[in-house]
TrEMBL record:
The gene is thiE. Residues 99-110 form the 7,8-dihydro-6-hydroxymethylpterin-pyrophosphokinase domain. The keyword Magnesium applies. Mg(2+) binds at D249, D268. One of its GO terms (biological process) is thiamine diphosphate biosynthetic process. Keywords: ATP-binding, Folate biosynthesis, Kinase, Magnesium, Metal-binding, Nucleotide-binding, Thiamine biosynthesis, Transferase. Pathway: Cofactor biosynthesis; thiamine diphosphate biosynthesis; thiamine phosphate from 4-amino-2-methyl-5-diphosphomethylpyrimidine and 4-methyl-5-(2-phosphoethyl)-thiazole: step 1/1; Cofactor biosynthesis; tetrahydrofolate biosynthesis; 2-amino-4-hydroxy-6-hydroxymethyl-7,8-dihydropteridine diphosphate from 7,8-dihydroneopterin triphosphate: step 4/4. GO terms for molecular function: 2-amino-4-hydroxy-6-hydroxymethyldihydropteridine diphosphokinase activity; ATP binding; kinase activity; magnesium ion binding; thiamine-phosphate diphosphorylase activity. The keyword Transmembrane helix does not apply. It catalyses: 2-[(2R,5Z)-2-carboxy-4-methylthiazol-5(2H)-ylidene]ethyl phosphate + 4-amino-2-methyl-5-(diphosphooxymethyl)pyrimidine + 2 H(+) = thiamine phosphate + CO2 + diphosphate; 2-(2-carboxy-4-methylthiazol-5-yl)ethyl phosphate + 4-amino-2-methyl-5-(diphosphooxymethyl)pyrimidine + 2 H(+) = thiamine phosphate + CO2 + diphosphate; 4-methyl-5-(2-phosphooxyethyl)-thiazole + 4-amino-2-methyl-5-(diphosphooxymethyl)pyrimidine + H(+) = thiamine phosphate + diphosphate; 6-hydroxymethyl-7,8-dihydropterin + ATP = (7,8-dihydropterin-6-yl)methyl diphosphate + AMP + H(+). Belongs to the thiamine-phosphate synthase family. This is Thiamine-phosphate synthase. The lineage of its organism: Bacteria, Bacillati, Bacillota, Clostridia, Eubacteriales. 2-[(2R,5Z)-2-carboxy-4-methylthiazol-5(2H)-ylidene]ethyl phosphate binds at T313, Q314, T315, G344, V364, S365.
């Protein structure tokens, strides 16, 4: 890379970014920082280590830190990357008061490819990284064989973990990466009634082969035990196709099968409670039928909104008048999180729905009502991606 001109001539560079926080809801702040990192132009978060809790070093009269390390690929120059990280820190409320003092979030370039940078503002490899368990332990999770200053990351991590106070947190932040990369464009919501006895797994697998990007298991009249078993089976299937699985309504089932998230509506458990119990790393979808509900959803932790019904539907009885494309557009314009339309969407009206500006279509009968769900999904996929 030609760093003088800031021009990329060599393709993306693999970098490691250290993240730490100890003010407020540190886990949520780290999740938000990772999301913003992944939204940077010319940068992709490839993988994130588990979270660790570590004792403060230097100034010890402060909270324990939550730490992790992200592996990213980027065509940003080291300087551009540093500026972008500082911008995220500032946007998330970091105020620089004291060296090694408490912080809302701290983002450090640990390694930038194989480069060594010795500038007053930027030193890479990070000068103290091989002395810190909270850096080396998550870094060794991502790349145990990595050699820094002639020493293997895994060996350094083991030694430092014995000397310094560091605890593994339960939540796996690989989920955050999955959530950040969630594709809402063709979202299948299941309903076994529509299958009229055909096998759910076969139908969902066919839909996945046809291009479905997200699946919601929606079981309205099933015992908890059966719901759980079906969810486990669907989780295996969606994992095989690397497509996230969300559970309709039931927080207990979503937790029990470690689903990628949940979809709840106006009559389900309160959004804030669901977010709190599921944690920041999981996807929470929220049903809305007007702008007020949409704004509420965005402010209270929803990752995306299911807006509908867009058209009349036989699949769910609802007293709500269809929103139409204009109603859908007004909801999309009122928020900045992804919005999918739902209700009566099929291959004939999908291009109209797309023109409202939403991020995807959510469908039941247009896929599961077909004897060939793979073809039906393919047609919807093509229609969604068709240029006007
Ligand atoms: C993507 C999506 N959008 C909306 C809904 C409807 O949710 P809700 O209003 O809670 O109704 P039920 O689906 O629970 O009957 C949804 N499921 N998915
Ligand atoms: C669950 C739900 N929520 C609003 S409309 C709807 C059903 C959508 O089904 P279909 O795609 O068959 O119209
Ligand atoms: Mg519901």
């Amino acid at each position: 890379m030609n760093t003088l001109l800031g021009v990329d001539t060599m393709g993306p560079v693999r970098c490691y970014i250290g993240l730490g926080a100890n003010i407020g809801d540190s886990r949520a702040t780290i999740a938000e920082a990772l999301k913003r990192l992944n939204e940077l132009p010319n940068l992709t978060v490839d993988t994130v280590a588990p979270l660790y809790r570590s004792a403060p070093i230097g100034y010890t009269e402060q909270n324990y830190f939550i730490n992790t390390v992200a592996e990213v690929s980027t065509t940003l120059t080291p300087r551009q990357l540093l500026t972008a990280l500082q911008q995220i820190e500032n946007d998330l409320g970091r105020v620089r008061v004291m060296r090694w003092g408490p912080r809302t979030v701290d983002l450090d370039i640990l390694l930038y490819g194989e480069q060594t940078i010795l500038e007053p503002e930027l030193q890479v490899p990070h000068p103290r990284m091989t002395q810190r368990a909270f850096v080396m332990v998550p870094l060794a999770d991502l790349n145990p064989g990595l050699v820094i200053d002639g020493q293997k990351a895994q060996l350094l991590a083991r030694r430092l973990a014995e000397e310094q106070e560091i605890y593994a947190e339960q939540r796996r932040y690989k989920d955050v990466v999955k959530k950040m990369n969630c594709n809402y464009s063709l979202y299948l919501v299941t309903d076994r009634a529509i299958l009229e006895g055909r096998d759910l797994y076969h139908a969902v697998e066919a839909a996945l082969q046809g291009g479905v990007t997200l699946v919601q298991l929606r079981e309205k009249h099933t015992s908890s035990r059966d719901f759980y078993q079906i969810a486990l089976g669907l989780k295996d299937l969606t994992c095989k196709y690397q497509v996230p699985l969300l559970i309709n309504d039931r927080l207990d089932i979503a937790l029990a099968v470690d689903a990628d998230g949940i979809h709840i509506g106006q009559e389900d458990l309160p959004l804030q409670v669901v977010r709190e119990m599921l944690g920041p790393q999981k996807i929470v979808g929220y049903s809305v039928a007007n702008i007020e509900e949409a704004v509420y959803g965005e402010r209270n932790g929803a990752d995306y909104l299911g807006a509908g019904p867009v058209y009349a539907t036989q699949t769910k009885s609802t007293p709500i008048e269809p929103l139409g494309v204009e109603g859908l557009r007004s909801i999309k314009e009122a928020v900045s999180i992804p919005v999918v339309g739902i209700g009566g969407i099929n291959v004939r009206n999908v291009s109209q729905v797309r023109r409202s500006g939403v991020d995807g279509i959510s469908v039941v009968s247009a896929i599961l009502g077909s004897f060939n769900p793979a073809n039906a999904s393919r047609e919807l996929y093509t229609a969604w991606h068709k240029k006007d």
